[in-house]
Amino acid sequence: MAHEFDLLVIGAGSGGVRCARIAAGHGARVAVVESRHWGGTCVNLGCVPKKLMVQASEYGDMVEDSHAFGWTSTRGTHDWAKLIAAKDKEITRLNGIYVSMLEKAGITLLTGHARFEDAHTVRIEPSPLAPDEQPFTVKARHIVIATGSTPVKPDIPGAEFAITSDEAFHLPTRPQRVVIVGSGYIGLEFAGIFAGLGSEVDLVYRQDLPLRGFDEDMRAAMKEAITARGITQHSHASPTHIRKEGSGYSVTLDNGQTLEADCVFFATGRRPKIDSLGLETTKVETADNGRIKVNSKRETTQPGIYAIGDVTDHLNLTPVAIAEGHNLADRLSGKETPRSWSLRTTPKAVFFSPPLATVGLTEEEATHHGAVDVYFTRFTPMRHTLSGRTDRKTVMKLVVDQASQKVVGAHVLGDDAAEMMQGIAVAVTAGLRKVDFDRTVGIHPTSAEELVTLRTRTRETPAIN
Ligand SMILES: Cc1cc2nc3c(=O)[nH]c(=O)nc-3n(C[C@H](O)[C@H](O)[C@H](O)COP(=O)(O)OP(=O)(O)OC[C@H]3O[C@@H](n4cnc5c(N)ncnc54)[C@H](O)[C@@H]3O)c2cc1C
Ligand SMILES: NC(=O)c1ccc[n+]([C@@H]2O[C@H](COP(=O)([O-])OP(=O)(O)OC[C@H]3O[C@@H](n4cnc5c(N)ncnc54)[C@H](O)[C@@H]3O)[C@@H](O)[C@H]2O)c1
């Protein structure tokens, strides 16, 4: 059977774009199909607009803090519409860059919704990006599914009144009272954004501490940081229903409490996007929440079809999708895989203010492998000794495997934590030991120097058998 393309990539997001570009660079005939927005979630409804909005939300406090440093500026008011317009302009610019980058790589760009007809044939149907286009079919030898994920809402009465992150990026005005449900990445990042811009934020979550899965000490530190940011926390709580009341909403919680809001925001996770993909016409198998099953080579259960990124739902981060796309393209082109990486040492950051960044194992995870030495510090960063915000602490923790003395986990909550953690991730990936940190000279005066001057073991935690 003749194929029009060597490779068809479905989805022009973080993973798909990288996979297509690398394969084209190796000389393959490549097409990419995109239904909604070039650049995918990260560029349009994720990392990029989120980070711009986090940055916007930090200026208000900075203006106030500057008084202690001799400035006389006043905080003023924030213009939400201006921020959204500036952010949209930047994203439109990035969309254009993605298109021209793909075109320059000699890739065929197809717009529409992709649906499998069989394992090597995909029908392209009209979609928001190409509403008037006539359907057509494409054949390819290899097909990569890189369709990402989509937000989920709890199935409760009134859920239709709640927004998700998708809508939060385009609200016409900033809501004054926001109830955010969920204390994962998105819940915390948007709680910080709205609070910093002047909204009253209620954060509702089911456990005792936010950020399930993160190191327990850091979760406790984050709980304090959330309070310091002026956000009201409702732990051990979940919404049972939402009612529309006048121009606002009332949210009833399972602890009997009712919260009034102008906006209810569900940050309750995402699911793989496989809607109307026609997987039933192939042998591609999915698991539990729709995740496409793949092996370590990103092969699905259908020969010739592969999946990368969020649609496989293991560590849903842009750099992971990119790395998977890159390695898959190399492998399909018969090139040596340039690098291998470990999910265990993939760094992560939650862009709250201050951010929390981490690499490697939590203390709890590490004790499953053996006893650990813990080094912990909590201090007021220099800036806030003058600003007076002494409740804005910096917290750092190193988790060291006792037997090998390797640093197996590093965790920082504090200004610039994400910037700091990239370098620390190199050290943890390289398997460096505590003594290597000790013999590294610090940069003074910084918060980061604490990571190489932590001399006294805070505690020793036995292994969990
Ligand atoms: C609010 C938010 C903030 C985030 N912040 C960060 C962050 O700071 N750092 C980080 O590392 N990660 C962040 N993420 C996660 C990151 O965005 C994702 O992990 C990443 O985008 C996944 O890339 P992907 O290639 O798997 O999918 P996506 O980027 O989602 O791309 C999939 C593309 O496929 C298209 N598509 C879907 N179905 C079809 C179809 N049938 N036909 C044609 N096209 C289709 C979609 O329109 C989309 O453009 C954030 C996510 C969200 C929601
Ligand atoms: N900075 C970053 O790297 C970044 C930022 C945003 C998103 N992301 C990625 O996107 C993914 C999705 O983000 P997210 O914050 O939506 O998911 P998440 O899994 O991080 O958090 C979801 C939260 O919602 C809670 N929850 C789920 N169902 C609930 C219910 N019915 N009632 C109350 N609470 C409920 C969960 O307990 C959890 O705390 C992340 O896991 C991450 O992979 C990354």
How are the SSEs placed, and which strands pair?
Layout: E1 5-10, H1 14-25, E2 30-34, H2 40-45, H3 47-65, H4 80-104, E3 108-111, E4 113-118, E5 121-125, E6 136-145, E7 149-151, H5 165-168, E8 177-181, H6 185-197, E9 200-204, H7 216-228, E10 232-234, E11 239-245, E12 248-253, E13 258-261, E14 263-266, E15 270-272, E16 286-287, E17 291-292, E18 305-307, H8 318-332, E19 348-350, E20 356-360, H9 363-366, E21 372-379, H10 382-387, E22 394-401, E23 407-413, H11 417-429, H12 434-438, H13 450-453, E24 459-461
Parallel strand pairs: 1-2, 1-6, 2-3, 6-18, 8-9, 8-14, 9-10
Antiparallel strand pairs: 4-5, 5-6, 7-15, 11-12, 12-13, 16-17, 19-20, 20-23, 21-22, 21-24, 22-23
Helix pairs in contact: 1-8, 3-4, 3-6
Bound molecules: flavin-adenine dinucleotide and nicotinamide-adenine-dinucleotide.
Task: Briefly say what this structure is.
The protein is an alpha/beta fold and 465 residues long.
Question: Which key features would you list for this structure?
Answer:
seven-stranded mixed beta sheet, Enolase-like, domain 1, 3 domains, six-stranded antiparallel beta sheet, alpha/beta, 465 residues, binds flavin-adenine dinucleotide, FAD/NAD(P)-binding domain, 13 helices, globular, binds nicotinamide-adenine-dinucleotide
